[in-house]
Amino acid sequence: MGTLALAAKVTHVPSMYLSELPGPHQGCRQAAIDGHKEIGRRCRELGVDTIVVFDSHWLVNSAFHINCGAHFKGIYTSNELPHFIRDMPFEYPGNPELGALMAEEIAKFDVRVQAHNIASLELEYGTLVPMRYMNEDQSFKVVSVSAFCTSHELEDSRRFGEGLRQAIERYDGTVALLASGSLSHRFAWDRIAQDKLNAYTREFDRQVDKRVVEMWRNAEWADFCAMLPEYAEYCFGEGGMHDTAMLLGALGWDQYQGKAEILTDVFPSSGTGQINAVFPL
Known about the structure:
Elements: E1 3-10, H1 15-20, H2 30-45, E2 50-60, E3 64-67, E4 71-76, E5 88-93, H3 96-107, E6 113-116, H4 125-134, E7 141-149, H5 154-170, E8 174-180, H6 203-217, H7 221-234, H8 242-251, E9 261-269, E10 272-278
Parallel strand pairs: 1-8, 2-7, 2-8, 3-6
Antiparallel strand pairs: 1-10, 3-7, 4-5, 9-10
């Protein structure tokens, strides 16, 4: 009988890496980095052996995919934002066993899912950025899940989470789940991007994000699940917010009753809304 020990919604903004480097933006994301490090500390304390990341930066056009390679190692430069993340080294162990078990159980929920142990299948920065700060010592095995789903229903992502919870129950170990993605996600237009590194693009998004965090703190999950499709649409949720649907599916969806603990308060980044929040189990 496996254990789900920790669940969280986390940021993966590339300005976290920029925040490490000498220059005008050094230290700008220290609060987000500290939130990640605290999650890593808690995972160690809870005996977590594997972190499953719902990566809203891994785009897929057909089926749901699990990257459960045996080992991940390389030097990463972002194709999207090479001026933010450049030559970032990484190395983490994988967990093919759990990935295969996930695919087996999730398929029982009528979800088209595949698990891949392919050495050349690379990780995206929605996984690499959190792991940089949570998993520096390679304490945790890593499994990455595609959560930028362009032709998928949020209902299927919910079922994905339900099937994953069953897989964890069959797994002989302890697992943490991370929904890696933003709240609102309306990027600032390029002409104003430099002025919006630490600001929202739209006041509407800022106000909705504030209300959403209030709902999370108050455990208003039935209302939040009901509004999630419209939230994702009207506030340009990253990857369609499939990461959030997967996480809540694993936690019980609208029956979940935990009150979110905010480790890093909502902050704007390049026009988007970001947070680190733990969902108590």
